[in-house]
Amino acid sequence: MFKEDFNIPDEYISARLHSLFTKSAKKWYYKMRQDHGKHSWPWWKEQIISKWANDSWRFKMENSFEEAIFNIERDRPMSWFLKQKDRLTALHPDMSETMVHKRILRKCGGDLEHAIRSRCIEPCSTEDYINAMEDITTRTKIGRNWYKSPIDNKTSGKPIVKPNKPQGRLPLKCHKCGSTSHLDNTCPKKTRINEIEIVNDTK
């Protein structure tokens, strides 16, 4: 980009690499510089492509993008949006900016995505989307139900009272003789219906 757009010599581009790389990439650059010394920009470009533009790197980058669901409780709209744009641009250099924006908005959740699209009618710049996203997440509650904090899933600390288990069925019982070995209809003792005491009233 620097060479094509600004006609910067290779020496200047190579000298700026230490400020362009960050984190693990900067450590890689210092290690390569220590092992191989100074080289031209075409040499560094070849090393960069060999290091990152491979199947393993693409797989890792695609997974990172797919897992990057916007979390309103944790993510900042500007840094989150730009990071996803960098990932898509690195994976698909020929993808249009409109398609990049659409794919990023799908990671925001239904309500938040709809609210941003309602405010930003294409063609819109990346800055327009970021400004709308920051305004919506700051001034409204839209999108806050998309992510549920693990804290909300915890109990209040009160002991859980388990319901009493129902007692077992009472044992069957013969109501004629009181035995529990059989029922009324199979009782060996016959009902004595004739044993009725008649009390004669004496006058």
UniProtKB/TrEMBL annotation:
<dbReference type="GO" id="GO:0006397">
    <property type="term" value="P:mRNA processing"/>
</dbReference>
<protein>
    <recommendedName>
        <fullName>CCHC-type domain-containing protein</fullName>
    </recommendedName>
</protein>
<dbReference type="InterPro" id="IPR036875">
    <property type="entry name" value="Znf_CCHC_sf"/>
</dbReference>
<dbReference type="InterPro" id="IPR001878">
    <property type="entry name" value="Znf_CCHC"/>
</dbReference>
<dbReference type="GO" id="GO:0008270">
    <property type="term" value="F:zinc ion binding"/>
</dbReference>
<keyword id="KW-0862">Zinc</keyword>
<keyword id="KW-0863">Zinc-finger</keyword>
<dbReference type="GO" id="GO:0003676">
    <property type="term" value="F:nucleic acid binding"/>
</dbReference>
<keyword id="KW-0507">mRNA processing</keyword>
<keyword id="KW-0479">Metal-binding</keyword>
<feature type="domain" description="CCHC-type">
    <location>
        <begin position="173"/>
        <end position="189"/>
    </location>
</feature>
